[in-house]
Every structure is written in C-alpha cells, then in structure tokens.
Design a protein that fits this description.
77% helix, mainly alpha
C-alpha cells in the first residue's frame, strides 16, 4: 500500500514536471511571439509613414497637374479665383497612381500581419495563464507551502526523495518475498 501510494505520488510529480516543461516552452513561445509582434508593428508603422509620404507627393502632383491647366482670367476649378499668382508646380518625384496603390497594399499587408501577430501573442498569453494555473494547482497538492518560483527546486528534491522511497520499498518487498500487483 505504501509503495502504491509512492507510485501515485511519483506519477503526480512526473505530470507536474511535464506541465512545468510545457509552461517553460510556452513562456519561450510567448517571448518569441511578442518580439515578432513588435517587429511587425514597427514594419507596419514604417510602411504607413512611407505610404503617407508618397500619398502627399501624389496629391501635390495632382495640384501641379491642375495648375498647368489654369489660364489667367478664367476661374480656377478648385477655388473659382480669376487670378493665379502662385500655382503649384509638378514634381518629378511624385509616384504614379499604380505605384501609390502598391505602397497602400504593402501598408495594409504589414498592418494585417501586425494584427495577426498581436492576436497570436494574445492567444499564447491565454495558454500560458492556463498552464500556470494547472502547475499551481498540482503544486499546491503535491508540494504544499511552495512559492511558484521555487517549484522547480522543490520538485527536483521531491522527485529524488520519492525515487529513494520507491527503491527502499521495492527492496523491502523483494526481501519479504511479497508479490505486488
């Protein structure tokens, strides 16, 4: 009976060790997911700034194109003025509509990747919290009076202790010639 109890306790410790390993792996996965999110968020922010810059250049170019059609004495199609003292100039650096669309699509894709990375980091955070709760619950039963930060040390010591107990009990059972089922 004592050996059976020790075997069950060891199984519990083994399960706790497995849960703790999964917790550590999930912690590493969360760190990686958070780094991925930060990187993708930076890329999205830079793509947005790039798009906004090109969009401004494109819009400025449109004003230059419109200004080329202005004739003194005829009303401006935008403001209605008959005089045009300072018309906008066309830029040689302005993107085409197709180029601007490419910048916009790249920005949208980067923002979508950033959002997806954020969702993944959130999902892993939830999983990590579940794993920590499972570890804490098992540790409270198997390793009472232990703080979460001490679980690994206490678990290692208890595992060695229970292995010694099982070895001692197995020897006692063998010496007594008792069959264990």
């Amino acid at each position: 009976a004592e050996k059976k109890d020790a075997d069950q306790y060891k199984q519990g410790l083994d399960t706790l060790q497995k849960d703790l390993s999964e917790f550590r792996e999930t912690t590493k996965a969360l760190e990686a997911a958070q780094k991925d999110y930060l990187a993708k968020s930076d890329i999205a922010r830079n793509k947005k700034l790039e798009y906004e810059s090109h969009n401004k250049a494109y819009l400025d170019e449109q004003a230059g194109i419109l200004a080329n059609t202005l004739i003194d004495g005829q009303p401006c199609p935008v403001c209605g003025s008959l005089s045009h003292p300072s018309p906008a100039h066309k830029s040689e650096k302005a993107p085409t509509k197709a180029e601007l669309d490419k910048y916009k699509k790249a920005t949208e894709k980067a923002e979508e990747e950033s959002v997806n990375a954020s969702i993944e980091a959130g999902r892993i955070t939830g999983s990590l919290e579940e794993k920590k709760a499972a570890v804490m619950k098992a540790a409270a039963i198997l390793l009472p009076n232990g703080a979460f930060d001490d679980i690994e040390v206490v678990l290692a010591a208890k595992t060695v202790e229970v292995k010694d107990i099982l070895l001692r009990l197995s020897k006692s059972i063998a010496e007594a010639g008792i069959k264990v089922t």
